[in-house]
């Protein structure tokens, strides 16, 4: 999802549990049944595409496009996975080379910016902050045409290095926002004032006092930037190709044909999604925290 | 005062690299695109001169087959269905989970997981699900309807000339309703418990409690949800490229820009991009100013 949107304090990430709820009367059995019935129904609907992906990816060519599309495979085969992997393998590694540096660099920049903007008041700070934020809402088409020329002119190598640079730059607004909101909740004003009294420099304060308590913020921005650069297609199609680009380009090449090999395409879609799904399953709490950031307000 | 003056300078220095990058790569490049959109650069050769707003007015007056207007209409249908769909579904899910559902984390995790998947990957499976074959050659969801004897529900999906874009919004709704749910859940949890208690003590029914006490408190949440889904919709590109590829029936401005660039009509592509940016700015800028103000008040 090229969805450059997030923004709440990681503190507010896992929806906070309120105090024990006062009993609004015992829920009637009918309401209870209805509630859980609906929850189950929606789960089935939401999981349906995943079922199709998994089932189809294990079918042999013979079983696709005939009756029983929704059935389990009669014979399970890894052939389509092998085919998909040979198409996606090279870009799979490249996408890690893209997403990991993007996640780390933009988080570090975001932390520094968020730290300054959460506590240092300088003239026009609010305007500057708003101008930064607007950067995460722009349709990137509005910068894409000259962007190609500028990165060429800067001499950044095409493909992954260019994409690292671009995702890092356009990730600055969201990372700054996440850290600003986070620091606004955790850093007491007095801490910074005390540090200034000590004569501790800004950078020293940041390094020795702030960075050590920033882990929760980093988790959110790292997940966010990793996911959005992994899933991006727009920058990728403008600034790279199937030989030097990330996995979304390769998947589109595999699946985008007029009459695609659906078994291989779906195996490919699963391979493409595994890293971000893994991140989501393992770090879901913080992932949601990233999402909340999109609402701008903490 | 003298003390304060000294303290904000190092902060400004620390964030200045980011400010410069954003000044160049957001505002500078937007300026470049605007400038390009005012010239007559319609092929690989350099522009001969400025043509005022011609490239913009031509989009509305002399675009072949009213292609731009057609893409705007598609965008409107898509946006309305997408926004209403995600907000209704997200609200229903939040309401089902909001009052301490059993295993809340489990439901939440499943409803949200599509968010971790890229549009390109989900496009692969939705293209299969929204198979346009009907009757005996029905595939995907149509096959289920056909099998259940609900043939009247079979749909041409995104190939319907009038309502195709509504079908195109279905995968997007699948991906982002969980996000809106998370926003609503956070909204509900942010409402002070005393408000509920007071309403219950006053003898409010559950319906009255939600209608008159809780929903009014959710206005900021709904505003965020509208802004986030709305601006995502304006940028929608990956999903459409993945489900249908670039084609007339499902063309939106973001795809039109790409198609126009392939023909090297840079000035026209720039004009469409700037138009898209303006739509987003008209909505987002007042929102950011509003958020800024209400933050200052609190």
Q: In angstroms, what separates the terminal alpha carbons of chain B?
A: 24 Å
Alpha-beta content class of chain B:
mainly alpha
Helical residues, percent of chain B: over 70%
Strand content of chain B: under 5%
Oligomer category: heterodimer
Proper CATH architecture of chain B: Orthogonal Bundle
Q: Kindly state the number of beta strands of chain A.
A: 0
The CATH superfamily of chain B appears as MetI-like
Provide the β-strand percentage band of chain A. under 5%
> End-to-end span of chain A in angstroms?
22 Å
Mean pLDDT of chain A: 83
Number of structural units classed as domains of chain B: 1
Helix content of chain A: 55-70%
Structural class of chain A: mainly alpha
Poorly predicted runs of chain B: 1-5
Protein name (chain B): Sugar ABC transporter permease
Main location (chain B): membrane
Transmembrane segments (chain B): 12-34, 75-97, 109-129, 163-186, 270-289
Pfam families (chain B): BPD_transp_1 (PF00528)
């Amino acid at each position: 999802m090229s969805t450059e949107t997030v923004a709440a304090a990681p503190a507010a990430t896992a929806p906070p549990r309120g105090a024990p709820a006062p009993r609004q009367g015992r829920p009637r059995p009918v309401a209870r049944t209805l509630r859980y019935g609906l929850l189950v129904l929606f789960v089935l609907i939401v999981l349906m595409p995943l079922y199709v992906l998994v089932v189809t990816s294990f079918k042999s060519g013979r079983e696709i496009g005939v009756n029983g599309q929704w059935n389990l495979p009669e014979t399970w085969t890894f052939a389509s996975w092998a085919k998909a992997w040979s198409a996606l393998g090279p870009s799979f590694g490249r996408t890690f080379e893209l997403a990991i540096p993007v996640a780390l660099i933009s988080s570090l920049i975001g932390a520094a910016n968020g730290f300054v903007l959460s506590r240092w008041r300088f003239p026009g700070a609010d305007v500057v902050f708003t101008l930064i934020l607007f950067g995460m809402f722009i349709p990137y088409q509005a910068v894409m045409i000259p962007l190609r020329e500028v990165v060429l002119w800067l001499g950044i190598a095409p493909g992954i290095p260019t994409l690292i640079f671009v995702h890092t730059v356009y990730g600055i607004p969201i990372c700054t926002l996440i850290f600003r909101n986070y620091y606004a909740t955790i850093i007491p004003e007095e801490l910074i004032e005390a540090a200034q009294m000590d004569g501790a420099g800004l950078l020293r304060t940041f390094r020795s006092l702030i960075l050590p308590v920033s882990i929760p913020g980093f988790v959110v921005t790292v997940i966010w930037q990793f996911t959005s650069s992994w899933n991006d297609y727009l920058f990728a199609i403008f600034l790279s190709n199937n030989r030097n680009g990330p996995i979304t380009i390769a998947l589109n090449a595999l699946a985008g044909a007029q009459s695609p090999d659906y078994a291989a395409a779906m195996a490919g879609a699963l391979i493409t999604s595994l890293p971000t799904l893994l991140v989501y399953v393992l770090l879901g709490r913080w992932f949601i925290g990233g999402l909340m950031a999109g609402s701008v307000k903490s | 005062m003298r003390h304060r003056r000294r303290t904000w300078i190092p902060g400004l220095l620390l964030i200045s690299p980011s400010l410069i990058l954003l000044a160049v790569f957001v505002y500078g490049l937007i300026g470049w695109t605007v400038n390009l959109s005012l010239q007559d650069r319609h092929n690989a050769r350099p522009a001969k001169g400025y043509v005022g707003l011609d490239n913009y007015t031509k989009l509305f007056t002399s675009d072949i087959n009213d292609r731009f207007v057609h893409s705007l209409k598609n965008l409107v249908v898509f946006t309305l269905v997408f926004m209403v769909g995600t907000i209704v579904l997200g609200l229903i899910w939040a309401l089902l989970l909001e009052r301490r559902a059993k295993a809340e984390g489990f439901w939440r995790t499943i409803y949200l997981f599509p968010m971790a998947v890229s549009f390109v990957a989900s496009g692969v499976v939705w293209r299969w699900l929204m198979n346009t074959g009907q009757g005996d050659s029905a595939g995907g969801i149509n096959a289920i309807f056909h099998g259940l004897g609900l043939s009247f529900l079979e749909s041409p999906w995104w190939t319907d000339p009038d309502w195709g874009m509504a079908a195109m919004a279905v995968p997007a709704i699948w991906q982002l309703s969980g996000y809106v749910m998370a926003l609503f859940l956070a909204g509900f949890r942010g409402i002070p418990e005393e408000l509920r208690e007071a309403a219950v003590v006053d003898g409010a029914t559950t319906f009255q409690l939600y209608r008159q006490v809780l929903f009014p408190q959710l206005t900021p949440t709904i505003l965020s949800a509208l802004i986030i889904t709305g601006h995502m919709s304006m940028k929608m590109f990956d999903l459409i490229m993945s489900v249908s590829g670039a084609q007339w029936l499902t063309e939106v401005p973001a795809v039109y820009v790409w198609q126009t660039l392939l023909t090297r009509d840079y000035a026209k592509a720039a004009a469409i991009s700037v138009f898209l940016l303006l739509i987003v700015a008209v909505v987002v800028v007042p929102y950011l100013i509003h958020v800024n103000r209400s933050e200052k008040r609190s």
